[in-house]
Amino acid sequence: MEKIVIKTSDSVSDILVGEGWEMVHELLPESGVAILTDENIYRIYGDKFPGFPVFQVRPGESSKKLRVVESLAGELLEAGIDRDGLILGIGGGVVCDLAGFLASIYMRGIRCAYVSASLLSQVDASTGGKNGVNLEGAKNVLGCFKQPEFVICDPLMLETLPEEEYYSGLAELIKTALIGDSKLFEFIENNHAGISRR
User: Fold this and answer.
1) pLDDT tens-digit profile of 15-44?
2) pTM for this one?
3) How many Cα atoms occupy the beta-carbon half-sphere of 87 within 13 Å?
4) What span, in angstroms and rounded, lies between the C-alpha atoms of 52 and 154?
5) 3-state SS of 70-131?
6) Distance from CA of residue 79 to its chain's centroid?
7) Tens digits of per-residue pLDDT, 107-152?
8) Axis-axis angle for helices 182-190, 163-180 (nearest 10)
9) Domains and CATH numbers, the chain
């Protein structure tokens, strides 16, 4: 896997890009890990998850609510996750947002990491350090900045992504390239046929 390091004033994140997300167990501590995922991801990949407690949410924006965060925090407490714990989010943008937000407030902050399973998440949600939940229909009104310890972006996971979600991620990728990366935009422009086919 290729490693990209993102440094902020108070943290360092390793972004690992390539095939083989299942190697995530090599990056995790032996105990104190809780896995957060959604029902769809668990149905497809759950048999390959590391052997830690798994907490599932419904897929989609409806899970980005404070009452879901509160419920998950209670489940973490019951599972014995303490201040040395780590939340591993395996999923798309919603799961990464929830995992990061929960990790930032649970016991005043514990570690988090992601296996990013959607293109939108790989481009933005899992790597940018922004985490948020919705409030009464207003998107990401409650949020924080928390960089994950690591993110795994496995392109093979995109093969199970619904077409609409894949193209949503492509739109975010193009937006990112237009805003600040002319070489990336040129690459997309020159390779759009292959990118469209995944």
Assistant:
1) 999 999 999 999 999 999 999 999 999 999
2) 0.93
3) 32
4) 21
5) HHHHHHHHHCCCCCCCEEEEEECHHHHHHHHHHHHHHHHCCEEEEEECCHHHHHHHCCCCEE
6) 22
7) 999 999 999 999 999 988 788 888 999 998 899 999 999 999 999 9
8) 140
9) 2-160 (3.40.50.1970), 162-198 (no CATH)
